[in-house]
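=== Structure Prediction Worksheet ===
Name of assembly: unnamed complex
Input type: mixed (protein and possibly other molecules)
Chain count: two
Listed entries:
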Amino acid sequence: MTRRFGMRPRVMRALTGVAWREYLRTPEAVFWTYGFPLVMALVLGFAFGEGRQEPAHVGVVATAPAGTSFAEKLREHGGGRLHVEVVEESRARRALTLGRVDLVVRGDAEHPAFELDPARPGSELARLLTEDALASVRGEPRPVRATIEAVDEPGDRYIDFLVAGLIGLNLLGAGIYGIGYNLVLMREKHLLRRLAVTPLGRGEFLLSYVASRIVLAMIPPLVIVAFAWAVFGVPVRGSFLALLGLFLLGSFTFCGIGLLVGSRTQSTETVSGLMNVVMLPMWLLGGVFFGNERFPELLQPIVRTVPMTWLTDAIRGVMLGSLETGGIAIAAAVLGAIGLLCFCLAFKLFRWT
Amino acid sequence: MNERAGIAGRGGGVALRCVGLVKRYEDVVAVAGLDLEVRTGECFGLLGPNGAGKTTTIEICEGLLAPTDGTVRVLDMDWTHDATQLRSRIGVTLQETRLFAKQTVRELLALFVALYDDARSADELLAIVALEEKAGARYQHLSGGQKQRLAVAAALAGRPDLLFLDEPTTGLDPQSRRSLWDVIRRFRDDDGGTVVLTTHYMDEAEALCDRVGIVDHGKLIALGSPRELVSSLGAAHVVEVDADGIDAAFDTAALEALPGVVEHACTTERLTLTVRQPHVAVPAVLRAVEAKSLRLRGLSTRHLALEDVFVHLTGRHLRDGEAE
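=== Predicted Assembly ===
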C-alpha cells in the first residue's frame, strides 16, 4: 500500500502537541523521569558521600567486668576513627553477619583475638585501626605509615561517575518506554489502526512522534546535571554544547531502539519481555553504576556493543575530562550509527495493525 | 426505495463493489466468496451474528486488510494504487478503539482535522454530534455513548464521501443509539454521503438502512431493503399463542388447515405461527383452542422483523452463541 512520504508541518505540530500533552498529563510518568534519577542521585551520592570517613565499627565482647573498661580504652585510643560498642557473646556473631560491626574483639589488650569476614571491604580497615589502637593502649609507639592524599575533589568521586550513568538510564527509559512501549500500547488500543485509515503518512507519524519524544527526553538530563552541580558540585569541565549534543544523540539512539522494539509487537506483555532483554545488558554492562573496563575479557565484546557504554563514556569524557576529543567523537559516531540503523529497520518493519 | 430515489439517483453510481471476496487465515476462512454492491447515497447494513465475517469484510473495504482473493473497488479506486487518495475520502469508525486518554474532546478532533487537507472545523464537528458541552472533557472521562459520538465526529472530519461504521452502537443505551442514528441519517440525507455499517441489531438495520445484506459464515445469504427481505417470507405477522399442552392438541395437519398460515412452530407451551393476515388467522386459532378446551394464557401478534428472516434462512437466532 502506497503512502505519501511528504511531511505536512500542520500534521507534525498536531501530533507533537498530542504527544506532549499525553506525557505531561500523566503525573506518574513525569515522576519516573524526573523524580527517580534525582532521588537516586541523592541516595547514592550521600551513601558513597564525599569527605566524611566512615568510622570502623568494632564490637568488643563483654567478658565481665573487664569488657566495658577495655572498650572504653579502645575508644579513647582509637582517635575518633573507631566506633566501639560492647556486645554480648551470644549476639557477637549475628552483629558481624548483619554488618552492624566490621570486627569482633575478644580478650584484652595483651591477648586480643579478632573475628572478621575477610571478604568484606570494611573489615581489613577495622583490623588495622584496631591494631593501632591496641598498640597505643599497650603504650607501644605507633607504626610508621605513609602520608595519605584523600581523593575527594569534585570530579573524582563516585557521584561524579554516577551522574553520567543516571543520565544514560534516563535517556534509555525515555526511548524504550516513551517510544517502544507506548507504540505497542497504541497498537493494542487499536489507535494505530484508526490512524492508519486516515491520510496520515507513516513517515509523518513516526518522525513527529519520535521528534516530540526526543525533545522531551532532553530536559531530564539537564535537570540531573543542574541538580548534581547544585547539591554535590559535580562539574562540567568540557563544552556544555558538546554535552547537549550527546544528550540529543543518546536520546536519538535509544528512541531508535525503542521504535524498533515497538515496531510490530502486538501486545504489551510481549514487549515488556523484549524491553527487559534490551535494557538488562545496558544496566549491567553499560558503565552505569560501576566501571565496566574491569569486566572479564570474555564480556568485553558485549560491553563494547552496548550503546550505553559509548554514551556513558562520552558523557564522562565531556563532564570530567576523562576522554580525549577524538575518543568522544568516536563514541558519538558509534551511537549515531546504531541509532540510524535502528531507525531505518524500525521504519521498514513498522506496522499499524 | 422510493424516498431514497432522489439521492440515490443523483450519483446513480456505485460507491463500493466487492467481487468474489475471500479472506483466509491459517485455519479459518473469515470471508468465503462475498459479492457486494453499495450504491452512492444509500445507507447499507451488513447484518449477521458475531464471527460471520462482517468486520473482516468492512476492514478489507477500508484498506486495513488485504483480501486473499477477489477485488474491491471503493469510490472507483482501489487500494493498491490510490490508497492515499482513498484515505482522504473515507471516514471510519472501528470496533473497540480507544483514543488518546488524556486529550480533551476538542484536542482529539483538532488532531483528526489536521490530518485532512480539506476538513471540517472542530467546532462544526462538535455541533454535528452535539458534544459541545463535553469539548473540554478528557477522553478517559467520557461515557461509552459520548466516546462513540466522538468517534463518528472524527470519522466525519475529512468531509468523507463514504462512511464505514463497524458496530457503531454496540453496548450503547437506547438514547445514545438514537442520537447516533440521527447523525448517520443526516450525513446521508444532508451531505449525500454513502454509509456502510455492520450491526447485529435488527432494529438498527430496520431503522437506519436502505438496504441490508445478511452475512453468515463469510457469505452473503440475503440482500434487499428490510421491507423486501421481510416480505420475501410471504407473510407479515407472527402470532404467538400461549397455552399449556398446546403441542399435544394440534398436529401438523391441524396447523396447516388454519387459514393464512405460512410457517408454524410449537413447544409444549407456545404455538408460533407466521401468517399473512392476522385478522383471519387469530379468530380461527382461538376457535380451535376453545374447541380443544385448552386454557389460554396469552396471545400476541407482531410484525415480522429482520430477525425472523435470519431465523428463516439459518435456523438460528442472530444473537445465538454470541461470545460477548
